[in-house]
Design a protein that fits this description.
40% of the residues lie in helices and 18% in strands. By secondary structure, it is of the alpha/beta class. The strands form 4 sheets. A 7-stranded parallel β-sheet has the order 3-2-1-4-5-6-11, with helices on both faces. Strands 7-10 form a two-stranded parallel ribbon. Strands 8-13 form a two-stranded parallel ribbon. Strand 2, helix 2 and strand 3 form a beta-alpha-beta unit. The longest helix is centred in the first third of the chain and has 21 residues. It is globular. Bound molecules: uridine-diphosphate-N-acetylglucosamine. Uridine-diphosphate-N-acetylglucosamine binds next to strand 7, helix 7 and strand 8. The site of uridine-diphosphate-N-acetylglucosamine (UD1) has 20 residues, from strand 7, helix 7 and strand 8.
Length: 337
């Protein structure tokens, strides 16, 4: 029995693959390498000390998927593959709908055809839309605010509809809060294309000297220090959550969503301070305008995952910053060309 991991060469996928292999799972990784590198695949093998089949290909390729389901004895899928940049999704929405929604439909179609009905899907806290009510709970109203978020919400809806039509499916939707950090070895980590959009990769590139200073997007929010608050979660904790979700599938949970967050919010300036504390590097920053679309505060109520998956995040912001820095300092250019 094997687990098909789509997008397994990416940031969260690569960390999850290492843990799956270490836990004794057989995996098959499918990735089109549109936002990841073969070097990551090599390093997954190196870290886990195990081999696995890697297929460079696209989830939009139904024939390729059918071949994979025929060739391997796959019983579950962890579906990471997708485009993930909010700003880009606003400029090229069709590509996001095509790739994320179209690609997921192609994957689910092939799963159905081949009798594979177990899936863990990478959703996002972004499906909660804008709300003041914190912490966010899984049964809070949903409503995404940009094309990227809408693709995540549509895929969730599609999976809920598939389950409603056939209760023998097992569907777990993992709503990630803000994934940061890296494998403590520094061998795998986040490798964004170009200038990072997200806070922590930006900070680590300032620290390594690739960027001059951080722009803090707004310090007049209704928060204690005026900067936005997020629920940062270590990517290793997130990877653990996928293993727990995979175990849960065997209990026929239905179609169920889980928040993967720590339940603790940290402000932008607190993250700058945590990075300084963890690494001894003080990050130069200036206060800039607010970034359109940013919620002032967002953090999870992670209690459902604790109760039903037996999962809680164990790593704190210092761990996140230290491990991020180990990765960034050892790989100033990420995985390179
Ligand atoms: C963003 C996406 C979210 C996605 C998530 C993936 C938006 C509006 N949201 O979340 O949909 O699921 O990434 O991790 O893009 N900040 C700065 N300076 C920077 C970068 C960020 O001050 O150079 C601030 C932001 O204003 C925000 C916080 O840092 O308050 C976190 O930003 P970011 O890392 O981009 O994550 P989100 O916006 O929470």
């Amino acid at each position: 029995m094997a687990v098909l991991v789509t997008g397994g060469a990416g940031y969260i996928g690569s960390h999850t693959c290492v843990q799956l292999l270490e836990a004794g799972y057989e995996i098959v990784v499918l990735d089109n390498l549109s936002n990841s590198k073969m070097e990551a695949v090599k390093r997954i093998r190196e870290l886990a000390g195990k081999d696995f089949d890697f297929i460079k290909g696209d989830i939009l390729d139904g024939e390729l998927l059918d071949d994979l389901f025929k060739k391997y004895d796959i019983d579950s899928v962890i579906h990471f593959a997708g485009l993930k940049a909010v700003g880009e999704s606003v400029s090229i929405p069709l590509r996001y709908y095509q790739n994320n929604v179209g690609g997921s439909m192609s994957l689910f179609e092939s799963m159905k055809k081949n009798g594979v009905k177990n899936i863990v899907f990478s959703s996002s806290a972004t499906v909660y839309g804008m709300t003041d009510k914190m912490p966010l709970r899984e049964d809070d109203p949903l409503g995404a605010l940009n094309p990227y978020g809408r693709t995540k919400l549509m895929i969730e809806d599609i999976l809920r509809d598939i389950y409603a039509s056939d209760n023998s499916w097992n569907v777990i939707l993992l709503r990630y809060f803000n994934p940061v950090g890296a494998h403590p070895s520094g061998r795998i980590g986040e490798d964004p294309n170009g200038i990072p959009n997200n806070l922590m990769p930006f900070i680590s590139q300032v620290a390594v000297g690739k960027l001059k200073e951080l722009s803090v997007f707004g310090n007049d929010y209704p928060t204690p220090d005026g900067t936005c608050i997020r629920d940062y979660i270590h990517v290793m904790d997130l990877a653990d959550g996928h293993l727990k979700a995979l175990e849960k599938l065997s209990e026929n949970p239905g179609a169920v969503a889980y928040n993967l967050g720590t339940g603790k919010g940290s402000s932008v300036l607190e993250m700058v301070a945590a990075f300084g504390e963890a690494t001894g590097i003080s990050i130069p920053y200036r206060i800039a305008d607010r970034r359109p679309g940013d919620a002032p505060v967002s953090y999870a109520d992670p209690s459902r995952a604790a109760e039903e998956l037996g999962w809680t995040a164990t790593r704190d912001v210092i761990d996140m910053c230290r491990d991020l820095w180990t990765w960034q300092s050892q790989n100033p250019d990420g995985y390179g060309e």
